[in-house]
Structures are given as structure tokens and as C-alpha cells.
Design a protein that fits this description.
This protein is of the alpha/beta class. The chain has 22 helices and 15 strands. Among the domains are: about 60 residues, no CATH class; about 150 residues; about 260 residues, Rossmann fold (3-Layer(aba) Sandwich).
Length: about 725
């Protein structure tokens, strides 16, 4: 049996250039329709667009005109400081101009009486609406056509207005520029007036605060008796001197203690070598110790020489060793005297250090109150300096503000007034490009939407990816003709030779015989090849053909497969097991009076119910039902029908079974003990993927015996659009 693919192996291939061309071939009608719609929009735009005129006036924001009045050393309030104007400030002014366009538009509309112009108020002119409402409407229309933009990185600002009348556009552009200059001057004058009033009140408060703070400093010094010598207090100078002396005393104490500790360590060791080694480094200033050491070294050398000559027990050598011990004892005595001297020096240094520390503690205790007062004094002086600096700064700003109020200068002036308006032709090329691209994008999007909603089987890749099963063949759609066009072999058989001779009423059931080289016949051969491969690997004889839903061509393909197998000489029988709707029996044996039900019930024997196709020697076991049966699944699951199929296995090489659909009824699930392998048919472009998956999930036993899937009724002219 052909193994089903895994989900990884059944994945659809990645999109390629060919797949994109296939998408265009499939959805070209939707894309073309959207392009036609965009062309209609473009035509409507050309029809409704009127010719307009744009006039522009240019102004400049020049801070240098007022900078000569801003000659102050301290950068104070940002309201008047124009010396630091930069690009960001110009952009801010441009934003303010745009935000105040409604206000400027209202002023211009009032001055130019635009409330009486049909271009701005439309059909409401002459109506009974109040004048303020018409004026507001005209101002809104004016602001919507007004455009303000900066020219590059300069201080130039261009004011553009678009109108249907060139003279009107020029007049309004100049009026807006003039209104902005007037508004800027007025705003600057009002700002300076408000600043001067605030400065006067603030200066009075700062003057009182500075005087009070300075008086508090003088009073605090007198109360605490704080006297300074130069820039430092007397107590601070005394404290610094004592601290320096204390550091020197501590250093001297540490040095004497270190010398004393070294000599005491030598004396505690009480070793000759240690005593001799230390005498050089610690007692250079003592004249006795070097002399004794020289004597000790001379005697030691002599003792070593004599010991080598005369032996260690010689009397002269013994006398030398006694002299060495006497010299060493003398050296130790001298060391003890030096150590005593160091003890005295250490005691004196320690007493001096303690005396200086006591004096320093007294000075610190005495100056604590003064230091606390000094902290409070610094705070008072800082407050006094801050108030005085604020007062001086605000005084300078106030004097500059008074000068600006007496001679205000606007930083904005008109550079180029609007003298004429330019004609604005409709942007045909850009609008055409936008509409074409928009229509193309809409068409592609609509096509993608249709592709995503087209959840049906179109290619073998769809079958393998969705059902995880091998696609055995793509069976093209065949035209059904109720007037049978029989083959020559079929025509040679007499009408009365056998009353149970198969005579199909449609040529679709004879295509494999009548047109053996057609695409339909080749597809059926592919199914037969898969069936033969399965028979070669096992003892499978019974092959059941089913579908997910009714009308997917199971009967046609089952008949064609049985005819093809029988044509090559194999003993083949076609069995109609669709007990609910035996359409195959009505097609091949419309006059049959007995069939599989009668055989299983024992009313008829098998030979009395079998029909034969004399052209291919294919046998057919029909199903004859007088009325609808309710227990068809029980019939298919019975032991009687199992015995019938066992008998058919002995007589035939191939048993092709036409089964009912999976989704509507459960009959197919009752045939798992009869059928060796199943072939599932799905209709091209009609069978939904999700319902098919749901139908297979409820038929576990059938899925395990699935030989493969046949994609039936394929439109071979269109499938090329879906191949990737």
C-alpha cells in the first residue's frame, strides 16, 4: 500500500515567479475590474476638477532689527531674549502662524468682506443667516486654502493662497501677510507692557528682600562676636597650627617607638650573631659599640685560625673563646644602655604628643560655638548675595524693557508681496499614476482575498499538503452524453444475447473503451498502476472507491477502473455497495430486479444477479432497493456480506467496490472488514478542504487503509494556472 506523506513532506513549495504568474492568470478578471474602477475614478476627477490659481507673498522674521535694543550682559527672561534665535525658533514661529491661521483668516475675511463672496459661503449668500455665522464660514474656507511653509533653512516664510479667481488669490495672500505683521507687532507690544508691569512689582519685592538679608548678616556678626583676620577667623588659624604640631609629634613618637622595639627585640633574642648584626644598623652614632664589634670580629677570626691549627681544646683557643664571651657581654651591656636612652626619648615624645592633643581638644571645644555660628552666617550671607544678584539682574532687564516699550520694533516684515497668481493645472500624470497603482493594489488585494477564501482542492500539492496522502491521478472532466456512442466491439453484440448485459446510458462510462488514448483514460491507468503496485506488495483484492460528498464522480471512476482492469484479461467484478443511493446500478443495470441485498438475504444466488459487459468481460453486482433502507450500515457489517466477499475473492482477481460518500452516512466505516484498500475521490474546485479533513478524521480505520486520493473532474484548461 502506498504510504501517506508526512506533514513536513507535504508542505507546499515556496512561492516562485511562476506561482506569481499563475496568480495573475487566475485573478486577472478581478485585477482588470479594479483597474477599470480606478480609471472611472480618474475620469470623474478630471470632470469635476476646476482650474485654480495660487498667489504667494514672502515675509521674513529678522531678529537683527531689534537686537540693538537687547544689549544686556545677562540672559534674563526668555520673553524678550531674541539674541539666541535659531532654526528651531523659526520653526516654532511657523507653527504659531499655522495655529493662528483661523484667527488671521477671520480678520482678513472681515476686512475683505468675504462673507458676501459666493466662493467662500456658497449658496448661503443672500440668505437670512446671521452675519457672524457667514463670516465664520468664510474664515474656515479661507483657512483651508491657506498654506504656510518655510523656504529651506532660511528665515523666509511663504504664504500661499489658492482661489478660483487670480485677483482674489493675490489680494488675500497680501492681506494675510499684512495681518500677520500687524498681529506680530501688536502681540510684541502687549507682551512688553505685561512684562514691565510684572518687573516693577518684582523689583520692589526683591529690593526689600535684599535689604532685609544684608541687615540680618550684620546683626548676626555683632551678636556672635565673630572677628576675621583677613579672610579667615582667628580660631581657624590657631586650630591649623595645633594640627600641624600634632602631626609632627605623632611622627616623632612612632619613630622612637620603632627604634626602641628593635633594640628590645635584639636583647630578647640574646644571641651573639643577632647582637653583632644589629650593632651596625642601629648604633652608628655610638662610638663604643663599633669598637667592641671590631674587637669581637678580630678575636673570632683568630679563634677560628687557631682551632684549625692546634685544635679546639688547646689552651690558647679556650682563652680566646673566653675573651669572645667577655666582649659579647660588653656589647650587650652597651645595648642595654642605648635601649634605656630610647625608652626615655619615647616617654618624652609620648608626653609631648598628649600635651598637644589636649591643647587641640581645648581649642576645638572653644571654637565649636564659633563654627556653628559660622555655618548660620554663611547661610545668611548666601541668601543676601542671591537676593542682591536677582535684584541687579531684574533691574537691568527692566531698563531694557522700558526702552523696548518706548520704541517697539517688529521682527517680521514683508519681503515680496503677491503681484500675480499662477495657474494650477490638474496633476493628470500623478493622479493617473496614483489611480492606476491604487487600482492595481486593490485588484491584487481582492485577488489575494479570493485566493484565501478558495479553500478547495486545485492541485496534487493541495491534496498532499492537506490530506497527507499520495495523489494517485488527476482525472479530467468528461462530457456526459445520454446517447451512448458504442465501440465497434460493443455494437457487434446482439441485443437479445443476454438479458443481463451492461449497456450504459452515458458515454462517460465508456470513455476508457471508446477513447483509450484520452487524458481521462491515461488518468485511470495511473490509478490502475497504483492498484497493481499495492497488489504486488500484499494480497489485496478488494478496492473501495469513496468520496467525501455526493456527486464527486465515484461511480464513473470506479466503472472506468473496473473496465480497464478487465480489458487486460483479469477477472474483475464491479460491486455497487451504495445501498442508500445506488446510482451506478441505475446507470449500468436499470432493469435489474435483484442484487447484493437479495444475495446476502438468501433469496437469490450470486449467478442470478451478476451483469456482464461483453466488451471487456467485466462483471457487475448491482444493488436493487425498492424503498430507502434504514439499516444499510448493519447490512454492510453483517456476516452474510462478509461471506459474499469471501466468495468473490475466490472467483475474481480484482473486486472494485463503489461506496457511498463519507460525510452524509456512516456506511463506508462499516466496510473496513470487507475492503483491503480505499481510494478517496475529491472533486476539483468543489470539494472544500476543511470539511474533507473533518470527514476523514471521523473515519480512522479507512484512513489507515487509504491507498491514495484521486482529484476528479479536473478542468485541464484552467489547472495550469494553479500549478507552481
Amino acid at each position: 500500500m502506498i504510504q501517506r506523506g508526512t506533514p513536513a513532506s507535504a508542505e507546499l513549495p515556496s512561492p516562485t515567479l511562476e506561482s506569481y504568474f499563475g496568480f495573475l492568470r487566475r485573478q486577472y478578471l478581478a485585477i482588470l475590474g479594479c483597474l477599470l474602477l480606478s480609471a472611472s475614478v480618474f475620469a470623474f476627477y478630471l470632470y469635476t476638477t476646476s482650474t485654480t490659481y495660487t498667489a504667494s507673498a514672502t515675509i521674513i522674521i529678522d531678529p537683527r532689527k531689534s537686537q540693538f535694543l537687547q544689549q544686556r550682559p545677562v540672559s534674563g527672561d526668555a520673553l524678550l531674549d531674541t539674541a539666541s534665535i535659531n532654526s528651531a525658533w523659526i520653526d516654532s514661529q511657523l507653527g504659531i502662524l499655522k495655529l493662528e491661521s483661523e484667527k488671521l483668516a477671520l480678520s482678513v475675511a472681515r476686512d475683505l468682506q468675504l462673507a458676501r463672496d459666493p466662493e467662500f459661503v456658497g449658496s448661503d449668500i443672500g440668505s437670512e443667516k446671521p452675519e457672524p455665522e457667514l463670516l465664520q464660514r468664510a474664515a474656515s474656507a479661507l483657512a483651508s486654502r491657506l498654506e504656510v511653509k518655510r523656504l529651506g533653512a532660511s528665515y523666509l516664510i511663504r504664504i500661499e493662497f489658492t482661489s478660483l479667481n487670480p485677483q482674489q488669490a493675490t489680494r488675500i495672500a497680501n492681506a494675510v501677510a499684512d495681518a500677520y505683521i500687524v498681529e506680530d507687532s501688536s502681540a510684541k507690544y502687549k507682551m512688553i507692557r505685561r512684562a514691565n508691569a510684572w518687573f516693577q512689582e518684582r523689583l520692589k519685592t526683591l529690593r526689600e528682600q535684599a535689604s532685609s538679608a544684608e541687615a540680618a548678616v550684620v546683626k548676626f556678626k555683632a551678636e556672635k562676636n565673630i572677628v576675621a583676620a583677613g579672610e579667615r577667623l582667628m580660631s581657624d588659624q590657631q586650630l591649623a597650627e595645633l594640627n600641624s604640631q600634632l602631626v609632627a609629634a605623632r611622627v616623632h613618637t612612632v619613630e622612637t617607638q620603632a627604634r626602641l622595639s628593635r633594640i628590645e627585640a635584639v636583647l630578647r633574642a640574646d644571641r651573639l650573631n643577632a647582637t653583632v648584626d644589629v650593632t651596625v644598623s642601629d648604633t652608628l652614632n655610638n662610638p663604643i659599640i663599633p669598637k667592641l664589634r671590631s674587637q669581637y670580629v678580630e678575636l673570632a677570626n683568630r679563634e677560628a685560625d687557631w682551632s684549625a691549627r692546634y685544635g679546639r681544646d688547646h689552651l690558647a683557643v679556650v682563652n680566646l673563646r673566653d675573651q669572645l664571651r667577655e666582649v659579647r657581654a660588653s656589647i650587650l651591656d652597651e645595648f642595654r644602655r642605648v635601649a634605656e636612652t630610647y625608652r626615655n626619648e619615647y616617654a618624652i615624645a609620648k608626653d609631648r604628643q598628649e600635651e598637644i592633643e589636649k591643647g587641640l581638644a581645648e581649642v576645638v571645644s572653644q571654637s565649636q560655638e564659633t563654627n556653628e555660628a559660622q555655618i548660620a552666617l554663611r547661610a545668611l550671607e548666601s541668601v543676601a548675595r542671591s537676593y542682591r544678584a536677582l535684584y541687579d539682574n531684574f533691574l537691568q532687564q527692566y531698563m531694557s524693557s522700558v526702552q523696548n516699550e518706548s520704541f517697539p520694533i517688529s521682527e517680521t516684515r514683508l519681503i515680496l508681496s503677491a503681484s500675480g497668481a499662477s495657474k494650477n493645472n490638474p496633476r493628470i500624470s500623478s493622479v493617473a499614476l496614483v489611480t492606476i497603482l491604487g487600482g492595481l493594489a486593490l485588484g491584487v488585494g481582492l485577488g489575494k482575498l479570493r485566493e484565501s477564501m478558495d479553500r478547495v482542492f486545485r492541485t496534487s500539492g493541495h491534496v498532499q499538503a492537506a490530506l497527507e496522502t499520495e495523489c494517485l491521478a488527476l482525472v479530467p472532466v468528461v462530457k456526459c452524453d445520454r446517447q451512448l456512442v458504442a465501440s465497434p466491439g460493443h455494437q457487434s453484440i446482439g441485443e437479445g444475447q443476454n438479458s443481463r448485459t451492461i449497456r450504459p446510458r452515458s458515454n462517460a462510462f465508456r470513455t476508457v473503451i471508446d477513447v483509450p488514448f484520452s487524458p481521462f483514460s491515461e488518468a485511470v491507468r495511473s490509478i490502475k498502476f497504483a492498484v497493481d503496485l499495492n497488489r504486488g506488495s500484499s494480497s489485496s483484492k478488494v478496492f473501495g472507491l469513496t468520496s467525501c460528498f455526493p456527486g464527486e464522480g465515484t461511480s464513473t471512476v470506479a466503472t472506468a477502473l473496473a473496465e480497464l482492469v478487465a480489458q487486460v484479461g483479469a477477472r474483475t467484478i464491479l460491486v455497487d455497495c451504495d445501498l442508500r443511493n445506488p446510482s451506478l446500478s441505475r446507470e449500468l443495470a436499470p432493469t435489474a430486479v435483484a442484487g447484493i441485498i437479495e444475495v446476502t438475504s438468501g433469496n437469490k444466488c450470486l449467478e442470478e444477479t451478476i451483469w456482464t459487459d461483453r466488451t471487456t468481460n467485466m462483471d457487475f453486482l448491482p444493488t436493487v432497493v425498492g424503498s430507502r433502507l434504514e439499516n444499510t450500515s448493519q447490512v454492510l457489517a453483517s456476516d452474510a456480506i462478509k461471506s459474499l466477499f469471501d466468495a468473490l475473492r475466490l472467483r475474481y482477481n480484482y473486486i472494485i467496490v463503489d461506496l457511498s460518500p463519507l460525510a452524509p452516512v456512516v456506511d463506508v466505516r462499516a466496510t473496513t472488514h470487507l475492503v483491503d484498500s480505499y481510494i478517496l475521490l475529491v472533486e476539483w474546485g468543489r470539494t472544500k478542504i476543511d470539511p474533507a479533513l473533518h470527514a476523514l478524521e471521523g473515519a480512522r480505520g479507512i484512513r489507515e487503509k487509504m491507498l491514495g486520493v484521486v482529484l476528479n473532474k479536473v478542468n485541464m484548461d484552467i489547472i495550469g494556472r494553479y500549478q507552481m
